[in-house]
Amino acid sequence: MRSAPANDMSHLFEELDYCPTPIGALSLRRRRDLRLGVDVWEIILGQEFLMTSHFTASEVALGKLGVEACAGDALDVVVGGLGLGYTAEAVLAETGVANLIVVEYLAPVIEWHESGILPLGTLLADDRRCRLIEGDFFSMAGDDGFDPDLPGRRFDAILADIDHAPDHLLDPRSDSFYQVEGLRALGRHLKPGGIFGLWSNEVSDVRFLERLRGAFAEAWAEPVTFDNPLTGKPFTQTVYLARAEAE
Fold first, then answer.
1. What is the Cα gyration radius of the chain?
2. N or C: lower Cβ tally within 10 Å for the chain?
3. Using one digit for the tens of pLDDT, what is the confidence trace for 196-227?
4. How far is it, in rounded angstroms, from Cα 72 to Cα 96?
């Protein structure tokens, strides 16, 4: 890994890390937005922008809304997709959360959090409630689950922020996950009444809601609208939520 300290702001643009991965070249960049007077971190995979610190409202909303929809306390939560860490941070900020597993396919992303070169520093890596696990979220959803130490473990909430949208995928191999059977397979890893949450870069899609309702007892969409600092106009993304059947 090539990296530089995240607090070194002497350059207008800096590539903090670059490495090949099985699904494309991965780059972590920090640049200075002179118009807004802020530093921006960006994760790029191939030609795709995975995440930017310019826009975090919907990632935060996924963690907050997903946990708030759960019943009880001492909650066990999974987040699929680590990125810059804002969804996981929002989960840990909720007082009822006892344990969090974050599943990340790309090992360098985990290393960024462990080394502290991101805006959140080592906040996630240092939290004793949080485990950062390298793995394929989609394969784990259809197999023995998300805890390598306890196959078949069930969770109060499973929240995913990996693809751009249910029909806009980073890797076409994940397509089956977003179909009814794939969603039902994930539902096996939820406790009765547990919550599945999904981030989408697009406005809510009635077709995907129908798929969710075919796999879960209840499903709904939460629009998240925020001011886009680049365009000066409102922009809407979506958090999908679904509840497993209660025993």
1. 18
2. C
3. 999 999 999 999 999 999 999 999 999 999 98
4. 8
Predicted TM-score of the model (pTM) = 0.92
| Residue 138 near residue 175 (C-beta atoms within 8 A) | no
Please give the distance of CA 106 from its chain centroid, rounded to a whole number.
13
Question: How many angstroms separate the Cα of 23 from the Cα of each of 74, 154, 172?
Answer: 36, 29, 11
Residues 81/162, Cβ–Cβ less than 8 Å:
yes
SS3 at position 62: helix
| Beta-bridge mates of residue 43 | 28, 51
Q: Is 17 in a helix, a strand, or coil?
A: strand
CA-CA distance, 40 to 95, in Å (whole number)? 29
In sequence order, the β-bridge partners of residue 236 are 225
Alpha-carbon dihedral 193, 128, 162, 27, rounded to 10 degrees:
180
Residue among 212, 197, 5, 241 at smallest CA distance from 88: 197
